[in-house]
Amino acid sequence: MESFEYTANPARVIFGSDTIKKLPDELRRLGKTRPLLLSTPQQISGAEALRDIIGHGVVGIFAEATMHTPLEVTEKAIAYAKPRNADCVVSIGGGSTIGLGKAISVRTGLYHIAISTTYAGSEVTPVLGETTGGIKVTRSDPGILPGTVIYDVDLTMTLPAGLTATSGVNAIAHAVEALYARNGNPVINLIAKQGIRALALSLPVLATDLGSRQARASALYGAWLCGTCLGAVGMSLHHKLCHALGGSFNLPHAETHAVILPHALAYNAPKVPLAMAMLAEAIPESDGEPIKGLNSLLAKLNVPRALKDLGMKESDIDKAADIASESAYWNPRELDRDLIREVIRRAWEGEQAR
Ligand code: NAD
Question: What is the separation, in whole angstroms, between the first and last Cα of the chain?
Fold first, then answer.
């Protein structure tokens, strides 16, 4: 076995069904009595349900979380929290709401309990992407990591079909890139393989039966494991490409991940034989070729397969190739601008990755 270094992020995770009922106990354990609840406008009923469960002490609901964590929303939320003497924040939602919780927590020191309702994985990472004046800047800081994560399978039952599939593939992408990360290690490999397997088996079930409780539990468990990978090791071409496409052309987050993943993996495949072998074990129907397994999984999930269907213009392919090959980041395979352009072109057209 080769030498490695492994740093685990501290995590207190409460997982199961109806686990939001444990929130009052968790607040008592932490000595917190004045929580501020956060949600998107669409999920305000979830925040209201939390308020009823907590009973008394809730200082308010701030239901203005939105994509890309704009600084002005964070400042508005802090201005709302301060005069009410909030002593912690509880975010209930996907990566957008949890991002707001992180942005408040890192600025104010308020303890953050994240209740995750998608598979994006932000709740277990010390990473935050924020937008100021339309420009998104991402940073990592131990102070960004939420203190407690509650996974309640019941809350994911309402996740619509499209977001279930794309958010699930978004999670798989974290674990795929963890398998060839520069700072990868055997512990993260175990977590990544298990996370991919849990999602690759449960997402096709959910594609035909959104209400399968067993598949929902397995998908959420897989999402936690994959999020743990994202929080622990560095990501490469796939994540950078999605970041560039999302940031520069305003493409939707989870859908973009679903389109790009097989193409980014195909680009890196020649340089990462060990990761490909681990993926072949983790992804069903791979027959030794994980890209084949991934294509078959994506076909079952009915996720978008072409960037042009997400609203990207053909004339933007060159700009995307420039951004993705200029930025300084580590990737297992050298970044060749023309080959990256071809990756983006294939993804734009919706061609099958191979
Ligand atoms: P999201 O949080 O933007 O949610 C999308 C929509 O789905 C929202 O309207 C939300 O209210 C709704 N929704 C969420 N859960 C639901 C449920 N169970 N039932 C019904 N509706 C529900 O989507 P996302 O994909 O979770 O997060 C994307 C954002 O998170 C991006 O901005 C991305 O950059 C960020 N992100 C950050 C990290 C990180 O580590 N910092 C990791 C992953 C994603």
Answer: 31
Structure confidence by residue, pLDDT tens digits, 25-63: 999 999 999 999 999 999 999 999 999 999 999 999 999
Amino acid at 108: T
Pocket lining for ligand 1, CB < 6 angstroms: 40, 42-43, 67-68, 93-97, 99, 117-118, 120-122, 125, 127-129, 155-156, 158-159, 163, 167, 230, 253-254
How many angstroms separate the alpha carbon of residue 206 from the centre of ligand 1? 18
Probe residue for ligand 1, chosen from 164, 253, 255, 310 as the CB with the greatest number of ligand atoms within 8 Å:
253
Burial class (CB in 10 A: 0-12, 13-18, 19+), 222: buried
Name the residue of 61, 66, 96 to mutate for ligand 1: max ligand atoms within 8 A of Cβ: 96
Q: Which residue has the tokens 């790009």?
A: 260
Nearest CA to ligand 1 atom 5: 94
Cα 119 to ligand 1 centre (Å): 8
pLDDT computed for residue 134 by the predictor: 73
Q: Can you point out the beta strands (E) in the chain?
A: 12-16, 35-38, 60-62, 88-93, 111-116, 127-132, 135-140, 148-152
Between strands 127-132 and 111-116, the pairing is unpaired
Residues in Cβ contact with 346 at an 8 Å cutoff, skipping those fewer than 6 apart: 263, 353
Q: What is the pLDDT of residues 227-244, one digit of tens each?
A: 999 999 999 999 999 988
pLDDT tens digits for range 247-276? 888 899 999 999 999 999 999 999 999 999
Neighbouring CB atoms inside 10 A of 6's CB total: 12
The full length of the chain comes to 354
Q: Which helix (H) or strand (E) holds 241?
A: helix 237-249
